[in-house]
């Protein structure tokens, strides 16, 4: 799924859409010892609006449009559809529409037995349908061409006792220490997944989307053990790997202008493929082409393939994860943040034998610590 497809599902994740229905929701509490303490399936069509709104708010967070970082697509291996394997468990749950208690119990037991989680947590899974409208050559909705996209959306939410502190006891007219007895289910999921994916505005049962709240440290056990997929590098790991490749290939030729231009080239790759279903990637071939385009000597560019393979193997890097939204220049005691729109106003040079960072200032009035200063 790309950002556009994810945004379509998220935008229509509401009863106000007219094309979306959240039919049933499965809830469960799993304790710190991985015991499924309780589970329940409720009809969303008859539950109170206040309760429905809480499910909407929690589940919608899983549909994160930061695709490739917080929301990553994974392909199931061939064996994942065997009986008792993750894809088979998800598909059985999907086709049961949460009406089969055995399918629900197998799904919850599979999560409890395979997730690496230090404390208690709640599982919230909704069975939803979305009517996909098709248009004809005249850009009008075609009668009889609608497709029903059926999917399950799961949020895994941490459970914590209420915060420690003091409360006012109105009975005894005194301030007393609060007793932590309530288990509060967070409305912000730590992990989640969407199955099947919405690809080319249709259902694809051979892929799943994994959501993580913590981009720097995603829960690998959800991807590999719960979903049965091969984990790819996190967004942070991809950026670190890319920077390592650049340092080893470019060496002493690494300067501000080269870093700036490479970042712009990768941004172009992302922009050119924003409507594609497949994620835009940077592999050793594309990276070599980019470095040659920015003027790196051929003998240096020839180092890309061996260095890339040593750092990343055969895995391609997600282009969106490599783009910097600003340039940060640091030196002992000095930090300069530069937005992309101002990148051309900064350059490095040698003045009177000293290495300098030069910043073009068109407006003679600037602010220092919030105070206007005229140069």
Brief write-up:
Helices cover 30% and strands 30% of the residues.
Strand content bin: 25-35%
Gyration radius, in Å: 26 Å
Largest sheet features? 8 strands, antiparallel
Distance between the termini: 51 Å
How many domains in all?
3
Structure, explained:
This protein has 375 residues and is of the alpha+beta class. The protein has 3 domains: 3-231, no CATH class; 236-322; 327-374, no CATH class. It contains 11 helices and 20 strands. It has helices at residues 3-11, 49-60, 86-96, 101-114, 220-226, 235-250, 256-272, 284-293, 298-301, 304-312, 319-322; strands spanning 20-30, 36-43, 71-75, 121-132, 147-161, 166-169, 174-177, 183-185, 191-195, 197-199, 202-204, 207-212, 281-282, 317-318, 327-331, 334-338, 346-351, 354-359, 365-368, 371-374. Strands 1, 2, 3, 4, 5, 8, 9 and 12 form an 8-stranded antiparallel sheet that branches. The two termini are 51 Å apart.
List keywords for this structure.
20 strands; 30% strand; eight-stranded antiparallel beta sheet; 3 domains; 375 residues
């Amino acid at each position: 799924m790309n950002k556009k497809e994810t945004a379509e599902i998220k935008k229509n994740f509401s009863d106000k859409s007219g094309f979306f229905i959240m039919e049933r929701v499965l809830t469960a509490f799993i304790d710190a010892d991985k015991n499924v303490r309780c589970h329940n399936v409720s009809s969303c069509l008859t539950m109170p609006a206040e309760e429905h709104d809480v499910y909407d708010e929690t589940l919608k967070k899983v549909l994160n449009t930061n695709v490739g970082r917080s929301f990553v697509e994974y392909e199931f291996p061939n064996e994942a559809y065997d009986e008792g394997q993750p894809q088979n468990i998800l598909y059985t749950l999907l086709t049961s529409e949460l009406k089969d208690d055995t399918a629900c119990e197998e799904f919850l037991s599979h999560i409890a037995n395979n997730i690496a989680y230090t404390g208690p947590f709640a599982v919230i899974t909704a069975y939803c349908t979305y009517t996909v409208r098709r248009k004809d050559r005249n850009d009008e909705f075609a009668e009889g061409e609608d497709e029903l996209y059926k999917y399950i959306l799961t949020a895994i939410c941490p459970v914590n006792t209420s915060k420690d502190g003091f409360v006012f006891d109105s009975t005894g007219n005194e301030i007393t220490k609060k007793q932590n007895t309530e288990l509060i289910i967070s409305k912000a999921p730590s992990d989640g997944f969407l199955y099947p994916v919405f690809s080319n505005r249709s259902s694809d049962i051979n892929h799943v989307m994994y959501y993580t709240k913590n981009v720097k440290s995603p829960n690998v056990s959800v991807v590999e053990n719960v979903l049965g997929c091969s984990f790819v590098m996190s967004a942070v790991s991809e950026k670190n790997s890319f920077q390592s490749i650049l340092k080893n290939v470019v060496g002493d030729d690494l300067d501000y202008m080269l870093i700036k231009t490479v970042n712009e080239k990768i941004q172009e790759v992302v922009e050119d493929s924003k409507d594609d279903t497949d994620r835009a990637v940077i592999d050793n071939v594309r990276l070599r082409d980019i470095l040659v385009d920015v003027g790196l000597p051929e003998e240096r560019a020839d180092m890309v393939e061996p260095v890339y393979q040593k750092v990343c193997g055969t895995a391609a890097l997600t282009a969106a994860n490599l783009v910097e939204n600003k340039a940060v220049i640091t030196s002992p005691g000095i930090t300069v943040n530069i937005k992309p729109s101002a990148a051309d106003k900064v350059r490095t040079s040698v003045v009177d034998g000293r290495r300098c960072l030069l910043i073009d200032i068109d407006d003679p009035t600037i602010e220092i610590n919030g105070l206007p200063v005229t140069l």
